Request: fold
Amino acid sequence: MSDMDKAAQEVKLTSAKVANQLVQVYYDALQNNRPNMMNFYAPTATVTWSGFNYDSVQSFFAEFMSNLPSISVNLSSVDAQAVLSHVIGPSTPSLITILILGTISFGSEPAENFSQTLVIQADPGTTMFRIVRDVFRLV
Amino acid sequence: MQSTTRERKSYSLQMASAQLAKRRRATNRNRGGPERKDNRNPNRPTVRTDPSQRRLRIEGLGEINISEARDFLRTRQRTAEIVTFEQDHLGVDISLKDPEHYSRCLKLSQTCFNGRTAIVKTIYTLPLSHILILSRILVEACLSKDEGSDDGTNKVDLRGLVSHPAIVENDIKVDFSDSLFVTALAKIINRQFPDAQTLLMDNNNIKNLRQFNILSQFVPNTINLSLSGNLIGSLDELGHLKSFKSLKNLLCFNNPIAVEPPSNDAVLDEIPHLQTFNGLPLESFSIAGAAVTGTSFKFPENSNFIPEDNRKFVNDFLTNYFSTYDNNRLELGTFYSAEACASISGVPPSHCQADGNFVSRNLLMTSNSSHSKSRFDRNVDLMVIGREAIIRTWFGRPKTEHDLFSFRVDVTPLDSSLFINIHGDVADISDKGNKGSARKVRYSFDRVFILQSLPDGIKIVNDMLSLRNLSGRFTKAMNETNIDNARKVARLLDESFEWSLEFCRKYVANALDCAQILLEFRNTTNLRTDFAADCLERSQWDVKNAMALFEQHRPSMLPEHFRM
Reply:
C-alpha cells in the first residue's frame, strides 16, 4: 500500500473512531446531562432544527432546548466522513461530517425517527472536536 | 343620602332628560352644538348633539338602565336618528330605522318614532346584555393569565368560550358561523385589544371558518391563531384565513382535518403567507446562509452563481442531480470532484437487505466485544473514494425514481463549503414484477452533499446516503393513497378509520392485500382484528404459519382475544 493510501486509511479510521466516540457521549448528555450540552458546541456553531435556524448556540439552548421535556434516544445508524480539504498534515482530519439515524421521544410521546447531521471541527492545534453545525429533522 | 352608584347614575339620567325636555320647551327650537355640562353634579352624564341634530351621544353612564334609556329616547324622538350609548370602552350605535333591530339591541319595545330615516351605522347586532357579558369574559380571561406565560404578544384567550359558565347561564348562542355573532365579537375584541397578536379559539365547536374574514378586519394584526379542538372538517376552510394578512403561525390540532395531516403544499395553497402549521415550518427549504455571520460561500469570479440566490442554486442542483441519477447514472461524473467520497448507511429496508452485495456502513459501536470491533473495522472500509469508483457503485444499484415533491432540504454554509441535507422518499424500480410490469418499492432516505467550489466548477466532495423504511411524513401523494386505502380497509374489516389508516401506513402498497388476508384469517380463527393481525405479522403474513402459531397459543387464550 502506498503512503498516500496509508494516509487515506488513517483518515478514514480516525474519523470513524472520533465520530463513534462523540456520538456516544453527545446523546448520553442529551438524555442525562442536558445542562452540559453546550460544551459540545464551538462558540461559532449554528443549529438548524426542523428547518428553523438558530444563529447561536446560546439562543438555541435558551429559546428552545430549555423548553423541551426529557428526551430519550435510540441510535440506529452512524456514518462519518472526513472533509478532505481539511486534512492537516497527511493523516489528521480536522473537519468531520457525521450522519445519524435514530429514534427520539419527547416526554411520554411515542418515539419518532430522526436524522441528524453533526459537523465537527477540531480546535486549532488540538484533536479536540467540537460541533460547528447541527442539522436536525424528524423524518 | 347613601345611594348606590347605580341609583346615583340613573338618577342623573333622569335629571338629564328632564333638563333637556325643559330646555327644549323653553327655546322652542332646535339648537346645535354641545350642551353645557351641568356643573352642579360632576357625575352627571354628558349629552352631546351634532349640529344637524341627528346624532345623540351620551357619555359617562355607569350601567345602562333600560327603562330610563327608553324614556330618554322618547324625549328625543323628533330629532334623534342615531343614539350612541358610551359605556367604558363599549360603544353601541343603534339604528332607529328598524325597530326590531334596536329592540333586539336594547330590549326596547313599543317605542314609537316618527319614521325618520336613519343612517345605519355599525351595530353590534347582539343584545347589549350579551355584549357586556362577552366583554367581561374577555377582560377577565386576559387579566387572569399567569404572568409567566406571557410570550410578549397581546393574547386574546377565547378557548372554550362556548362552554364558559356565564355564556351557558345566560343562554348566549356562541356560533362562529353566525356572521352577527362574529361581528359583535370581533368589534369587542377590537375595542378591548386593538393590538391583539395572538387569538386562541380552541374548543368552540367551530365547524367552518366562513365568517373569519370579518374577524380579520377587526383584529388585523393577528400573528398567531389557534383553532385546536374544533370541528373543522375540510382543508378549504383554512382558505378563509387568507385575509389575516399578518398570520404566521396556525395551530389546528384535534380537528377532523388533522386526522391525516395535510401536506405543506396543501396548506400553503390555502394560506400562502403562513409560516408554520401545527408547530412545524412550511417551507421545504431552510437556508442558514443569511443567518450565519462571518462566513460565506465563495464561488470563483467567473461563475454564474449569484450569491443572494442560494435557494435557486440548490433547487437547480438537486433537480439536475436526481434527474441524472434516475435516468442516466453514467453521467453523474460531472457532479463529483475527482477525489470525492461516498458511503451508504442507515437501516436499509428489507428489499435492500435481500441484495447480498449491500451492507450498511454503520459505524455505531456500542459494545467492546471483538465481534463488534471487527464489524466496525469492516464498516470503516465500506467507503468509496474517487469519482470513477463512485459512479460504478451507483451504477450497480437498482434503478430509482426520486419523489422530489417529498424533499425537505436544509442548506448550511461553512467556510468555503456548502452542506446540503436532503430528506425524502424514493422508489426502487425492478422490472421483474408480475406480468412483466415494473414493480416500485418505496422507501425513504437522508442524504448529505458537501459542495465546494473547485477550479472546474462546483462539485460534490462528500456524499453520504442513509436508507430507511418509508416514513411518508413528507409525501402528499402517499397520504392521499393511504386515506383512500384506509377507507376501503375500514369498510372491509369493519374497523375505525384511524385504525385502518395506521394499518395502511404500515403496509403501504400492500395494505389492501394484507387486509384481505387478515379478513379471511380473522373469519377462520374468530380472533379479534388486532390479535389476528399480530398473529399474521409474526408469521410474515404466511397464512399456514399463522394458523400454526394460532393453534399453538389457543389453549392459553382468553375470551377477550376473540370477536364477540
Remarks:
- Strands of chain A lie at 41-49, 52-54, 71-82, 87-88, 92-93, 95-106, 112-122, 129-138.
- The first helix of chain A runs from residue 3 to 32.
- The radius of gyration of chain A is 16 Å.
